[in-house]
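note to self — DONT lose this again. spent like an hour looking for the file last time. sequence + predicted structure for the chain T wanted, 89 res
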Amino acid sequence: MLEEVIFFDTLRQALWTAVVVSTPILAVALVVGVSVGLLQALTSVQEMTLTFVPKLVAIVAVFWASMGFMTASIVTLFQSQIIPLIVGG
């Protein structure tokens, strides 16, 4: 019973970390996608690369800018949850 609680708590914490780490990239992709879609609807320009390229550039820029935050979040998860379980058990 105790092992199940530890497993599910660790899984919950890992999933929450995944959500927190992926939020900046997904938010920027959503905002850029809606903005470009609105621009396409207003100008009647239906070009697939017009949607793909700005999204790709924005995602790469946000990934580069938030890499330190993402790394710190994942390292914190490992140091506080995963490594103590490995060492202790």
